[in-house]
Specification:
Order of helices and strands: HHHHHHH
Largest sheet: none
Distance between the termini: 23 Å
Number of helices: 7
Shape: elongated
Mean pLDDT: 85
Structural class: mainly alpha
């Protein structure tokens, strides 16, 4: 049987959805691990990552069930959701790759000002104080701030040093998975229109 046949398309869709299930479990596990060991104190960040993981798991599970049962309705909704996710993820990935230094700095500063818990996480992890300036009369979670013999750097200098590489990495990973999603859409569309060779002629819708 050629690879464009029923069995090969079914196996390819199953493998793709198993990959998505593994990625979703990895996201949930990493978020829970970071919160458990107090590496991330912001509950919003943890909840967002876990939410994405759960959403991906549900979509992948629905796709896997639809593929195994050749269920037309499940496959249709799976295909539509996957296509919407592809558009959103592709746009975000392109934006990550296209941001210049000024745009990166502006977005990072906006994100910095929105959450004090995130500020404390970054200050503690990177050993820095403040985003663009060090406020000696304020508070800071960095160890350098508590030791008068040490001088603290601003967090923007450290973050921007690696922000470009991180955004390129995130954008590249996002583009890779966006193309697997459009592949999933194409495979699902094709699979829905292939007759199951084990079924009778009147069973195919």
């Amino acid at each position: 049987m050629v690879c464009g046949g029923y069995i090969c398309t079914k196996n390819a869709l199953c493998a793709l959805n198993i990959l998505y299930v593994l990625v979703s479990l990895l996201l949930i596990g990493v978020a829970a691990w970071g919160k458990w060991f107090d590496l991330v104190s912001s509950i919003r960040v943890v909840a967002a990552v876990i939410g994405v993981g759960i959403f991906l798991f549900i979509v992948a599970f629905a796709g896997l069930c639809g593929t195994l049962k050749h269920h037309q309705i499940l496959l249709f909704f799976y295909m539509m959701i996957l296509f919407i996710v592809f558009i959103v993820q592709f746009c975000i990935s392109c934006a990550c790759l296209a941001l210049n230094k000024d745009q990166q700095n502006h977005l990072l500063e906006v994100g910095w000002n929105k959450s004090e818990a995130t500020q404390q996480d970054i200050e503690k992890t990177l050993n820095c104080c403040g985003y663009s300036k060090v406020d000696n009369n304020g508070t800071c979670a960095a160890s350098c701030f508590k030791d008068p013999s040490l001088s603290c750097f601003t967090c923007s200098n450290i973050i921007l040093e690696y922000a470009g590489d991180v955004l390129r990495f995130v954008g590249g990973i996002g583009l890779f998975f966006s193309f697997t999603e459009i592949l999933g859409v194409w495979l699902t569309y094709r699979f829905r229109n292939i007759k199951d060779p084990r079924s009778n002629s009147g069973a195919f819708l």
